[in-house]
Amino acid sequence: MGLVLFGISLLMFYLTRGFLPPSFALAPYITPRMNDAAKLALAQSLGVATNSCPSFQAFSALQQACLVPVWAQYTSWLANVLKGNWGLTLLPGISGTQTTVSVFFSRFPFTAQLAVMGAALTIVIGIPLGIVSATHNNKLPDHISRIVSLGGYSIPQFWFGYVLLIIFVLYARIGGLGLLPGSGPLATTCVICFTNPGSVAPVTGAPIIDGIISGNLHYAWDSFAAMILPAITLSITSIGALTRIVRSSMLEVLRQDYMLLARSKGLHERVVIYRHALRNALLPAVTVAGLLTAFLFGGVVVIEIVFDLPGVGYTSLQAVNVFDINFIELYVLVTALIIVVTNLAVDIIYAKLDPRIRY
Amino acid sequence: MTEIEPTVEVNRSADVRFALHLFRKNPLVLAGLVLSVGSIAVALLSPFLVSPTSWQITHPLLKNCWNNPLFGWGNANIATCPSPYALGTDSYGRNLLQMIVLAIPVDLQIALEVVLSAVAIGIVFGATASYAGGIVDEAILRITDIFLAVPGILLAIVFMVVFGRTIPVLTGAVLLIWWPTYVRLVRSQVLSEKERPYVESLRSIGAGRVRILFRHVVPNSIYPLLVQATLDIGSVILTVSALTFIGLSPSPLLPELGNLASLGSQYFFTAPWLIIFPGLTILLISLGFNLLGDGLRDILDPRLRR
């Protein structure tokens, strides 16, 4: 686990430091009123310029005397990263006024909220669909769930988002209002929304939770309504994947001899399916939880752009345009940490679900 | 040896007949075959159907036209949009249908390059890992772990920020996401295959390790790889189009399905065709390869042959 995180940090470090000029590594740490001598001292303290570097001009011109080999920069980079020193943000509008870390963690809860809703939808729809598909093999429910899962696999998420917007906002209109809210983090103009939810102070950064904490349930509902279409769009592919996995492992389990035994004992069909079959069939599904998490946290980039949501996915694209590499690096490392922790949790849950496994 | 020959022949023709039977029995696989072969055909014919340079020519007056009389979408400006266009025109005034025809080969080529390179990398590293075992195996596995623990699209974004926005970089960025899956797939296949008795007999007649591995074991474990590659062509196209959609397109004019959709996304309330048709094309191609891959899996799965 630690090894994976170390490897990812090495990969990100090498990609960004090894192939871009050192000025990119320096940019987030420069404050407006710095003169060249201060910039040079900064570059030296960050480990991107050698101590024998004569001037900042020489550093900018990539003179040989100033260049530090990439491998020698890693420890100083890692020290900064671990201290949380990611420099100032380069994002347009707020450039240089806030630290990258504060920008990231003020927007991250929003993305986490979207990813959690996507994960919840995936589980709530994917698992039952997989079960029904396997227990009604080659009958209508099976065909429906196979179409859903294949469609989910094949549909471009961004396109699905726009199609949902066109259907629910443009065409399904009641009294001149769209049925569901369009883009944006807070819905105020749609059939099911409250028109004047007011505002709440951001405590956690996730609007639904903030609304509940401050007692403004209208705000919480409107934030929730704005998340409905993004969450459906985000989860469509993972629903397809999970349905497929649950279906195939359930089919495999249903063929086993102990299923015959359970039935011949005279157990009720429901008990056979949910107590005996499902528990074994869920094992392969649990192992892909890490992959699904990776998928959801990657997918939010596209979803946040389609639905104009102020999370880290949307911000990372702004960061791309201004070469704010530290922001993207931070995003990758935080997401990787979440995925690694998920995989660890999967290992523990796996041992719980399957008593045959001992670590 | 001569006594075994006839049975092999019989089995092979029975296999072919069985595969044809499965194809006939399953209309969805047939649909997949039609869609995937059809998209490849359009891609190959594309330079003959549409002038390959027409995407560089913009017509500001023909912006966002919709004159298709079969299907009313409202707001066509009759004064500036004289002739009907089957799928309308985009925000640069180019014929959308022509742009889609030009875009299909671009996407398919990237997808094929990515999948074929991933298969090649998978065979080399996966077979090496499983056959060498020990520390080599462990090292290769841990490296794939690292790549699998980063959301693919983020990795691709970083790669494209660092190396610039060109089509080869885009291909490389997507390959960076895909190769670990193939290494692991080949590794597990070869691991199960190399315990088979025929490998033992090959070793006993003195065949070299490399020869056994690449001439016998790898070809025998190629079927799951083929299925995965077919399925992944669809997924790669989805990833490529998602990357260009979010703005990592090499050029804003480039006819690439994700980029065409991205151009249309600004007008999706007033000119919905701009996003609907490029997206629908992606869906159909990806669906085609997924259906075909599913069908191939069923056909090649020996458990179904009873």
Describe this structure in words.
The complex is a heterodimer of chains A (359) and B (306). By secondary structure, chain A is an all-alpha fold. Chain A has helices at 2-19, 22-26, 36-46, 56-60, 70-82, 100-135, 140-154, 157-171, 207-213, 217-254, 257-264, 269-287, 289-306, 312-321, 325-353; strands at 173-174, 177-178. A two-stranded antiparallel sheet of chain A has the order 1-2. In chain A, a hairpin with a 2-residue loop joins strand 1 (173-174) and strand 2 (177-178). In chain A, helix 7 (140-154) crosses helix 10 (217-254) and helix 10 (217-254) packs across helix 13. The radius of gyration of chain A is 25 Å and the shape is globular. The two termini of chain A are 15 Å apart. Chain B has 306 residues and is mainly α. In chain B, 72% of the residues lie in helices and 0% in strands. Chain B has eleven helices and no strands. In chain B, helix 3 (96-132) runs antiparallel to helix 4, helix 5 crosses helix 6 and helix 6 packs across helix 8. Chain B is elongated. The two termini of chain B are 28 Å apart. In chain B, 46% of the residues are buried. The model of chain B is unreliable at 1-8 (pLDDT under 50). Classes of the chains: A mainly alpha (359), B mainly alpha (306). Chains A and B meet through helix 1, helix 7, helix 8, helix 13 and helix 14 of A and helix 4, helix 5, helix 9, helix 10 and helix 11 of B.
Q: Give me the Rg of chain B, rounded.
A: 24 Å
Through-space gap between termini of chain A: 15 Å
Tell me the helix content of chain A: 55-70%
The fraction of residues assigned to DSSP E strands of chain B is under 5%
How are the secondary structure elements laid out?
The complex is a heterodimer of chains A (359) and B (306).
Chain A: H1 2-19, H2 22-26, H3 36-46, H4 56-60, H5 70-82, H6 100-135, H7 140-154, H8 157-171, E1 173-174, E2 177-178, H9 207-213, H10 217-254, H11 257-264, H12 269-287, H13 289-306, H14 312-321, H15 325-353
Chain B: H1 5-25, H2 27-49, H3 96-132, H4 134-148, H5 152-163, H6 167-193, H7 197-204, H8 209-220, H9 222-248, H10 257-265, H11 273-300
